[in-house]
Every structure is written in structure tokens, then in C-alpha cells.
């Protein structure tokens, strides 16, 4: 097995301030080169997961009473090291998850920005003072940390998504047990390695590697965990919701969706194609906000499709670390098979395959696939179910009103986009789109670190104190 010199022989758990091996060992593959795996990792069982939760619970009283400055300094140190090492960590991310190197470096940068932003938020935890109707009584309203937070994250963004959850949890005074997807243990270990040098007390942050059935399920079931922040598939989210509800535990979900991009007749064609190519195919389409449902008004439909086909023919699919590559491999064999099966199902339903949709052979053995474009209708499964691969379907809309209707009846749209040169139509779409996240003349995308999200409400409880003055 080839190894990069700075990586350990085994990616271990980080429990109560120390590194531990696990009950069993797994292997992290490199989806660009199956003959060059990333490395072996420890796999935790329920007992080891409980030990991590116990450590976090024991550390909570001290950390929850720590000053905002202490928390800010630790988070700033984590963010600073992520940013300083973005090229090195981006290379690791590209090897393990399959993003192209520029995309991987951008993700590490975003993770660093999350920690830096919440370093500031640790000093700005809100509160309020109120006067009551009775004389000589004051009311103070404060935000208090929740307790032990279980953070369970997917492989698609192995540093940015964990950062978006771990950083606010720590900033607001909670302790964390982090369980990443088994697909990306090296990235999780790299983050824990950085956290271990940030000055956090033992037990405040813990990493357990392993399966959702063992470690993940135990995090959700353990009564010492006061909140679970989960990102992943809708099917797993259902199981997490049921288990959390059984013991009335607070839970936060970030799950996948089917996202529409609307292209109106008056759109700038190059802008629309850029948005569609980026949103549908970059990161191999493996992101929850990927726009795999392209809704195009009739007057521009044929020109848009021709322009898409011309651009798709120029895209280079190859090893994630190869210079100039546009799209890397899919993350694993299951994702490749799912994308190919989805295309086959679409064709059986009558969708027309316009481009791609076949496995590719490259100099190294990997999960490479030619990006696929299909023409279909709104009711087809390929137009309604999340694909999580480099596959998009074009749907013809009669007019702008019909396009908005098709966008709004898209199941579980996390983000909806529109391409138009009309301020009036863009404003109308923003107002009447039923998606919580809307883009105009841009690819569908995730949220930035500084825009509204429910982190403060999720990671804290509100305490109201009445005081006689």
C-alpha cells in the first residue's frame, strides 16, 4: 500500500484527549486509483462510542462555563490551521472523496472560514434584558449551551459539513461526539488532529470512526446526548428521527433533495449553461444542492440543449489530482452503480439519453463516468428522485408560469435557481419559489457561513430569569 509520509499507519479515534484503536479495522479507498488506497482506519463499536459520550458529558460542566474568549481562541486556532494547510489537506480530501483538487482546496478553505466565523460568534452570544409589568422586577434572557451534541455527517463534504456543525456547537459551549461517514475517515482524522492542538480540554471534542449501525445508532440512542445534528440520506434521516423522537431528543437535519434550475427565454445562454454545468456536474453531482432537474422554457429549450451538449463534450473526467480535470470520479462503486441504474430506469420510462451515461476507463482504476444529460418529463422518476451523481434531465416548460409551477412541485428542493435577464421575473421567482434557498443567474449552491441558519436556536436553550431589584 502506497502512503503519503505525513499520514499515520492507522487513522484512530480521538477519545477524551487521546488516540485509540478500535474493535475492528477498515480500509479507505481512493476512488481515482483503487490500487493506491488512502489507509486503514479503526472502527468503533457501541462500547467505545459510549466511552466517547461519557467523556463529553464529563467535560461539559467546565466547558459550558468557559469564557467566550477561551472558546474563540480555540476555534480561531482550528480555522487558522485549516487555512494554512489548505493545499495539503485539499490533496488528502481529493484522494479520499474524489473531488478535483481545486474543489477540494476550496472545501478546506470553507471549513476554515466556518471555524473562524464561529470564533467571533463565541464572543457575540446574544441575550436580552426586559422590564416586567411589576415594579422592581427585572428579566434577563440568556442563551445556554445544550449539552452533548452528536454530529453525524456524510462523505460528500467531509470537512465543510462537519465544520459547519462542530464549530457552532463548540462556540456556544457544547461538547461534541463526531461520527463521520465511513467513506472518509482520513479527512475526519485530519480535522481531529488539528482540533487536538487547539487547546480544548479533554473530552470536549471526540471522534469515533465506524459504521452508522454501530457508532451512529449509539449516538442517537444514548441518553447523555442532548442533540443530534445529522446530514445524510433521507432514508437514514427517517431512522434517526424515529430514534430521537422515542427519547425526545433535539435533532437537526440536513438531507438531500431534488433541485430545479429554471432557464427562461430571455436568459443569457452562456450564463445559463455555466450555471447548469456547475450545478449539475461539478463535484460529480454529489452534493445535496445539485441541480439535476433543468426546467427550460420552450423558446430557448433547443438552443440550451445544443449548448449543453457542446460544453459536455469538452469536460475532462479523470483522476482528481490530475491538473486541468473538470470532474473527478464518483465516490465509490455503489454511487457509480446507482447513477447507471438511474439512467437505465429513465430510459425505460421514455427519457432520451442525449449525452454520456457510461463508465469510463482511465490510466488508473477508478469510478469514472461520463456525465449524462437526458430529456424527460416531470413525472419520471429520474426527474423527481435525488440521483447524487453526474446526471441531469432537461424538462421543457410552456412558459415562465409553467416553469415556476414545475420548480415548485419538485420534491424536497433544497435550492431553486433561475436564469433570466429580467429583474421583474427574477424578483417574482424569488418571491414565489417555495424553496428556502434561491439563486439568480448562479448555480444552485449551499449556504455560506454568515447567512441565516438555525444554529443558535439548535445548539442553545433559552433561559429566562426574574430578579427583584
Please give a structural write-up:
The chain is 39% helix and 21% strand. The chain has 14 helices and 20 strands. α1 packs across α7 (212-221), α2 runs antiparallel to α4 (101-121) and α3 crosses α4. The longest helix has 21 residues, at 101-121. The termini are far apart.
Rg from Cα: 23 Å
CATH class of the largest domain: Alpha Beta
Based on the coordinates given, report the CATH architecture of the largest domain: 3-Layer(aba) Sandwich
Which sequence of strands runs across the widest sheet? Answer: 15-16-17-14-13-18-19
The rough form would be described as globular
- Beta strands, count: 20
User: Structural class, from secondary structure content?
Assistant: alpha/beta
GO molecular function: oxidoreductase activity, acting on the aldehyde or oxo group of donors, NAD or NADP as acceptor
Protein name: Succinate semialdehyde dehydrogenase
Pfam families: Aldedh
Keywords: Oxidoreductase
Question: Which descriptors would you attach to this protein?
Answer:
469 residues, Aldehyde Dehydrogenase, Chain A, domain 2, alpha/beta, globular, 20 strands, Aldehyde Dehydrogenase, Chain A, domain 1, five-stranded parallel sheet, 2 domains
What order do the helices and strands come in, and which of them pair?
Elements: E1 10-11, E2 13-15, E3 18-20, E4 24-28, E5 39-43, H1 46-64, H2 68-84, H3 86-97, H4 101-121, E6 127-131, E7 137-145, E8 148-152, H5 160-171, E9 175-179, H6 185-195, E10 205-207, H7 212-221, E11 225-232, H8 234-246, E12 250-255, E13 260-263, H9 269-281, E14 293-297, H10 298-312, H11 333-348, E15 352-355, E16 372-375, E17 391-397, H12 400-408, E18 416-419, H13 423-432, E19 438-440, H14 455-459, E20 460-468
Parallel strand pairs: 1-5, 8-9, 8-11, 9-10, 11-12, 13-14, 13-18, 14-17, 16-17, 18-19
Antiparallel strand pairs: 2-3, 4-5, 6-7, 7-20, 15-16
Keywords: Oxidoreductase
Protein name: Succinate semialdehyde dehydrogenase
Organism: Caballeronia telluris
Amino acid at each position: 500500500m502506497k502512503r503519503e509520509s505525513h499520514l499515520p499507519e492507522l487513522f484512530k479515534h480521538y477519545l477524551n484527549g487521546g488516540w485509540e484503536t478500535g474493535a475492528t479495522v477498515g480500509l479507505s479507498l481512493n476512488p481515482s486509483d483503487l490500487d493506491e488506497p488512502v489507509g486503514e482506519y479503526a472502527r468503533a463499536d457501541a462500547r467505545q462510542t459510549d466511552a466517547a459520550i461519557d467523556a463529553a458529558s464529563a467535560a461539559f460542566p467546565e466547558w459550558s462555563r468557559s469564557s467566550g474568549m477561551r472558546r474563540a481562541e480555540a476555534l480561531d486556532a482550528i480555522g487558522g490551521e485549516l487555512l494554512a494547510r489548505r493545499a495539503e489537506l485539499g490533496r488528502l480530501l481529493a484522494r479520499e472523496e474524489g473531488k478535483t483538487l481545486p474543489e477540494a482546496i476550496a472545501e478546506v478553505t470553507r471549513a476554515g472560514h466556518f471555524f473562524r466565523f464561529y470564533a467571533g460568534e463565541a464572543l457575540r452570544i446574544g441575550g436580552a434584558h426586559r422590564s416586567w409589568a411589576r415594579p422592581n422586577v427585572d428579566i434577563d434572557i440568556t442563551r445556554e449551551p445544550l449539552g452533548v451534541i452528536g454530529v453525524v455527517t456524510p462523505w460528500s463534504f467531509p470537512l465543510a459539513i462537519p465544520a459547519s456543525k462542530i464549530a457552532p456547537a463548540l462556540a456556544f459551549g457544547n461538547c461534541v461526539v463526531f461520527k463521520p461517514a465511513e467513506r472518509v475517515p482520513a479527512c475526519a482524522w485530519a480535522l481531529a488532529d488539528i482540533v487536538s492542538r487547539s487547546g480544548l480540554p479533554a473530552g470536549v471534542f471526540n471522534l469515533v470512526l465506524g459504521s452508522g449501525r454501530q457508532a451512529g445508532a449509539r449516538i442517537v440512542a444514548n441518553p447523555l446526548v442532548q442533540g443530534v445534528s445529522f446530514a445524510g440520506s433521507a432514508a437514514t434521516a427517517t431512522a434517526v428521527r424515529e430514534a430521537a423522537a422515542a427519547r425526545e431528543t433535539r435533532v437537526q437535519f440536513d438531507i438531500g433533495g431534488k433541485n430545479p434550475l429554471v432557464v427562461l427565454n430571455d436568459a443569457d445562454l452562456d450564463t445559463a449553461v455555466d450555471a447548469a454545468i456547475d450545478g449539475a456536474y461539478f463535484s460529480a453531482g454529489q452534493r445535496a444542492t445539485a441541480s439535476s432537474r433543468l426546467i427550460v422554457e420552450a423558446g430557448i429549450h433547443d438552443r440550451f440543449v445544443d449548448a449543453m451538449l457542446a460544453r459536455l463534450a469538452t469536460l475532462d473526467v479523470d483522476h482528481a489530482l490530475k491538473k486541468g480535470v473538470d470532474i473527478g470520479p464518483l465516490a465509490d462503486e455503489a454511487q457509480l452503480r446507482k447513477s447507471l441504474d438511474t439512467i437505465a430506469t429513465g430510459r425505460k420510462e421514455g427519457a432520451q439519453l442525449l449525452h454520456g451515461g457510461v463508465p469510463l476507463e482511465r490510466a488508473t482504476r477508478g469510478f469514472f463516468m461520463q456525465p449524462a444529460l437526458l430529456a424527460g418529463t416531470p413525472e419520471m422518476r429520474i426527474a423527481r428522485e435525488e440521483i447524487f451523481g453526474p446526471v441531469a434531465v432537461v424538462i421543457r416548460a410552456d412558459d415562465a408560469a409553467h416553469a415556476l409551477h414545475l420548480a415548485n412541485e419538485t420534491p424536497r428542493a433544497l435550492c431553486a435557481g433561475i436564469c433570466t435577464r429580467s429583474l421583474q421575473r427574477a424578483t417574482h421567482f424569488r418571491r414565489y419559489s417555495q424553496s428556502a434557498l434561491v439563486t439568480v443567474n448562479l448555480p444552485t449552491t449551499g449556504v455560506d457561513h454568515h447567512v441565516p441558519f438555525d444554529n443558535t436556536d439548535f445548539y442553545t436553550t433559552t433561559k429566562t430569569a426574574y430578579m427583584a431589584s
